[in-house]
């Protein structure tokens, strides 16, 4: 039985990703050991947050094909903002993301610097200043965080 929950645990899987970094390149995103934890917002607000939770030693890794480099996103919390939209007719929830302040590191010589905290994620794409990091569809399996319930309401 599903019932409202204030948090939702999602394990993301990305496919068909591209990155615009000294040209457009295919990117493989590995999320092994990492999940997203979405925290509900008050109705009709855009104040939800998301955490990147990783097991010890794990990070989200974006391997850029053709450039032989990798961008890493470690565990972090309180990233804003997430908007949840109830689609009552469809019985689903749409998640709108406009997330700022993502911490990252990289060994990509094509980036002006090797780390920062200005990474952004917007509606299906991750951007760092101007390069896109991971534009492409994402699928996710979901479950309530720590057996708190079923779905966000």
Describe the 3D structure:
With about 150 residues, the chain is an all-beta fold. The chain is about 0% helix and about 60% strand. A hairpin with a 2-residue loop joins strand 10 and strand 11. The chain is elongated, with a radius of gyration of 16 Å. The protein starts with 6 loop residues before the first strand and ends in a 9-residue tail after the last strand. Residues about 125-140 and about 145-153 have low confidence and may be disordered.
In short:
The chain is 0% helix and 60% strand.
Report mean pLDDT, rounded to a whole number.
77
Structural class of the secondary structure composition? mainly beta
Strand content: over 45%
Q: Which regions have little confidence, pLDDT < 50, spanning 5+ residues?
A: 124-142, 147-153
Write the topology of this structure.
Layout: E1 7-14, E2 17-20, E3 24-30, E4 34-39, E5 48-54, E6 60-64, E7 69-73, E8 76-87, E9 92-106, E10 115-122, E11 125-128, E12 132-135, E13 138-144
Which descriptors apply to this entry?
153 residues, mainly beta, 8-stranded antiparallel beta barrel, 0% helix, disordered C terminus
């Amino acid at each position: 039985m599903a019932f409202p929950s204030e948090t939702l645990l999602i394990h993301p899987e990305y496919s068909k990703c591209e990155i615009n970094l000294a040209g457009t390149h295919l990117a493989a995103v590995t999320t092994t050991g990492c999940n997203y934890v979405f925290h509900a917002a008050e109705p009709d607000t855009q104040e939800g947050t998301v955490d990147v939770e990783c097991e010890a030693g794990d990070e989200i890794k974006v391997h850029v094909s053709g450039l032989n480099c990798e961008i890493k996103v470690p565990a972090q919390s309180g990233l804003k903002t997430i908007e949840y939209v109830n689609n009552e007719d469809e019985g689903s929830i749409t998640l709108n993301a406009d997330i700022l302040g993502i911490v990252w590191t990289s060994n990509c010589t094509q980036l002006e610097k090797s780390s920062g905290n200005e990474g952004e994620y917007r509606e299906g794409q991750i951007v760092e200043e101007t390069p896109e990091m991971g534009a492409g569809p994402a699928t996710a399996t979901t479950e309530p965080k720590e057996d708190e319930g079923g779905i966000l309401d």
